[in-house]
Write a structure and sequence with these properties.
Length: 292
């Protein structure tokens, strides 16, 4: 099932739901400047064996409205978009799973909308108030920052490129995000980006989230009051939020469970899809069993 959801006067989001309608809802929240098609089909299909899985395109990605230049917003607004998606689908509560910036949004949901969450999972992310989620403050921790090679590539993110050059830039981006522990197959990610470009109907780079207001993310201390069952997945080879970012986040969230997936970087490499899906499902199905 596909539909569009209005989240403001200026933004409409593309949404897709798969899996049994009787399954407990599970909302997948992608990272910055990333379409919902960034979730690999194999990962979604495994989750959809147990859940009604919902994916969506953030503002200024995919088939959703691209209007940041005329109607700017804050990163924190993207968290309220997730609630608007649940409302539009008539879902009172859902498991939420967030990657990268999506993990930051999951943390905001844990603080501001715990009544809408059955459980939470976050990976490849930084804790609120830390690293790239430090908001408008200077982080007080000494956690490692992104790989300098990525920072150099991000400086080119908004440059104008023809379709083929844009595709190759994205593949190179994935190569760096993949990390160094798992072999990188450029064709896997080239095909992924071709699908995303076809889905979006445009090839220019989505960059709005890099320009969005970062304020309101300085809330890490509030995670100590979280009561929603939370899983944090560590990606040991993540070049953006390397260890100990995941352990730091898990230490802030009350009762959080921490698991590590060997070799995982900041990309959903085919080799990590099965263990990641198993970790998420072990978490969500145990919560569902306890509720039942």
């Amino acid at each position: 099932m596909e539909c569009f959801v209005d989240v403001s006067d200026h933004y409409r989001l593309w949404v897709r739901a798969t899996g049994p309608e009787t399954g407990t809802p599970l909302l997948l929240i992608m990272g910055a400047n990333a379409s919902g098609l960034g979730w690999p089909d194999a990962f979604v299909e495994q989750l959809a064996e147990h859940h009604r899985v919902v994916v969506y395109d953030h503002r200024d990605t995919g088939r959703s409205t691209w209007a940041f230049d005329d109607h700017p917003y804050a990163i924190r607004d993207l968290a309220t978009d997730a609630i608007a998606v649940l409302d539009a689908l008539g879902l009172e509560r859902a498991h939420v799973v967030g990657m990268s910036m999506g993990g930051v949004l999951v943390q905001l949901l844990l603080i501001d909308h715990p009544d809408r969450l059955l459980s939470a999972t976050a990976f490849c992310t930084a804790a609120l108030g830390s690293g790239l989620a430090s908001g408008s403050q200077v982080p007080e921790d000494d956690l490692p920052g992104p790989d300098p090679a990525l920072l150099a590539l991000w400086a080119e993110m908004g440059d104008e490129r023809d379709p083929e050059a844009e595709l190759e830039w994205r593949v190179e981006h994935w190569r760096l995000l993949n990390g160094t522990e798992l072999d990188f197959d450029p064709e896997v990610f080239r095909q992924l980006e071709r699908r995303i470009i076809d889905h979006s109907g445009r090839f220019d780079a989505p960059v709005a989230h890099a320009m969005a207001d970062q304020s309101g993310l300085e809330r890490g201390t509030e995670l100590a009051d979280v009561e929603v069952p939370t899983l944090v997945v560590e990606a040991p080879a993540d070049p953006i939020n390397p260890p100990p970012h995941a352990a730091h986040l898990a230490s802030l969230v009350a009762g959080a469970e921490l698991v590590s997936i060997p070799g995982m970087g900041h990309a959903l490499h085919p080799a990590v899809i099965d263990p990641l899906a198993r970790a998420v499902l072990a978490h969500t199905t145990s919560v569902d069993a306890a509720r039942a």
